[in-house]
Amino acid sequence: MAPDPSNSSSSSFTLVGVPLLEVFSAYLGTLFCSAYIIALLGNGVVLLVIGLDKSLREPLHCLLAMLAVVDVVMATSIVPKMLSVLWLDSTEIGATACFVQMFLVHSTTSEESGVLLAMAVDRYVAVCHPLRYRAILTHQTIACIGLAIVLRGILFMIPLIWMVTSLPYCHSHVIPHSYCEHVAVAKLACADPRPNGLYSVAGSSLIVGTDAAFIAASYGMILNTVLGKGSGWKALSTCGCHICVMLLYYIPGIASIYAQHFGSTMSVPAQVLLADLYLTLPTMLNPIIYSMRTKQIRGALLRMLFSRKVRA
Q1: Which residues face 13 on adjacent strands?
Q2: 192: how many CB neighbours lie within 10 A of its CB?
Q3: DSSP string of 190-234?
Q4: Angle formed by the axes of helices 59-88 and 268-286, to 10°?
């Protein structure tokens, strides 16, 4: 039986799961558990192959490994607790755990966007400036880019976490969500949550808008270059897959952010499911679209499987 929210400790919160869809909790749990397992397997294989095959040390492979790590952290920060809520009615979460989860969720979304931008820039340099590729994207440069991506996510979240933890929570501690989403938590405060909301929506819009604009510019220049060389179909196929995955990440993410902040005609269950899907669906698709479609990684995986079969 789920704990009575009125009896919850002042140092804890109560997660609802997906409001108004409690009757479907078992099915939703199965859906998100399946996505989580696929995400762990896919990203785990990518990390294993890149880690074991010494030929996969190009800048793109480093970025793919970073994307896999971010995806695993992002999915792991929400899905296990979500499953305990949906399957076991274990709805209570400590305040510290809640804020840690909030930090991980929102910082990794920023980092995911940063890695997608870095990968788009990598492809731009590889296609448009192939002779200068190794001179421009050295391992030191990639390390600095990776550090900048992580620092951006952390620096964005530090003020946000400080603001939300400073709010007094003297009324309801029931979060109408399946994880500690920032806006949903801030709305529970018995003080004005608008400064939190304004900082969050302004920061998120700036990060996503800037990254999306540079990604679009990169792919635009890539297509302009390859179409001029008469090799457009392959590029269109590759870029098309990448853009579709990015749209699956950016559009639901932006829609969720603005629906939470400004309200909308979208129902509460739809808002919660949208927020859940934009955090779990890309983590499942990224290894397939970005890594397994990469010739070198596919070849390395086949070599690993083939050599093991021969030895057996």
Answers
A1: 93
A2: 10
A3: SS--HHHHHHHHHHHHHHHHHHHHHHHHHHHHHHHHHHHTT-HHH
A4: 140
How far is it, in rounded angstroms, from Cα 36 to Cα 42?
10
What does the pLDDT read at residue 224?
82
* pTM of the predicted model as reported, rounded to 2 decimal places: 0.88
Whether the Cβ atoms of residue 253 and residue 245 lie closer than 8 Å to each other: no
Three-state SS for 93? strand
Contact call for residues 47 and 82 (beta carbons, < 8 A): no
Paired tokens of 20: 């108004």
CB 103 within 8 Å of CB 158: no
Of 5-9, 138-142, 252-256, 280-284, the range with the lowest mean pLDDT is 5-9
Task: For residue 171, give the DSSP letter.
Answer: S
Q: Write 261-269 long-range contacts (CB < 8 A, 24+).
A: 261/183, 261/197, 261/200, 261/201, 267/20, 268/19, 268/20, 268/176, 269/18, 269/19, 269/20, 269/21
Chain-centroid distance of CA 103 in Å reads 13
Q: What is the pLDDT of residue 55?
A: 84
What are the phi and psi torsion angles at 8 (to 5°)? -65, 145
Q: What is the pLDDT of residues 97-152, one digit of tens each?
A: 999 999 999 999 999 999 999 999 998 898 888 899 999 999 999 999 999 999 99
Q: Which domains does the chain have, with CATH numbers?
A: 10-311 (1.20.1070.10)
Q: Which of 64, 43, 49, 206 is nearest to 123 (CA)?
A: 64
Alpha helices in the chain (DSSP H): 25-52, 59-88, 95-128, 133-136, 139-165, 182-186, 194-228, 232-262, 268-286, 295-311
| Residues in the chain, overall count | 312
Three-state secondary structure call for residue 138: coil
